[in-house]
Design brief:
Length: 130
């Protein structure tokens, strides 16, 4: 496979890693909403253990993806985590979608799209108005 194909594939893998990290955050939130008999049970319960294992796996996947994905793309892909957590929080934690959250998520997604397509978007827009 050529380098461009590998970058595309590992960009997708990177986003999957961010999704895994977001799911683990939801698990930690669910665990935090419960009451426990002791501090030990609060930190050593299945939800917390699985969440931290998922965090670790996500970190390992992300580090491997940096072999193919440019370092400047990392923070852009990581910002998708805010969108994932918002959507997962809505689905699993019954959190409300406010106007501010929705606008924030749309802006994050637009930023990812602009970064992903780079100058091509600006060339397209400038041709529309030329």
């Amino acid at each position: 496979m050529n380098k461009d194909t590998m970058v595309i594939i590992f960009s997708g893998v990177f986003l999957c890693s961010v999704l895994i990290s977001s799911i683990s955050q939801i698990l930690l939130k669910k665990s935090a909403d419960r009451t426990y008999d002791s501090r030990l049970k609060e930190y050593l319960n299945p939800l917390v253990i699985v969440a931290y294992i998922m965090f670790f796996c996500s970190m390992m996947i992300t580090m491997y993806c940096y072999r193919y994905v440019d370092v400047s793309a990392g923070p852009i892909f990581e910002s998708a985590g805010y969108v994932f957590v918002g959507i997962l929080g809505f689905i699993f934690l019954k959190e409300k979608f406010t106007a501010k959250k929705t606008i924030g998520m749309v802006l994050i997604l637009l930023g990812i799209v602009v970064f992903s397509f780079g100058g091509e978007i600006f060339n397209f827009i400038s041709k529309m108005f030329a």
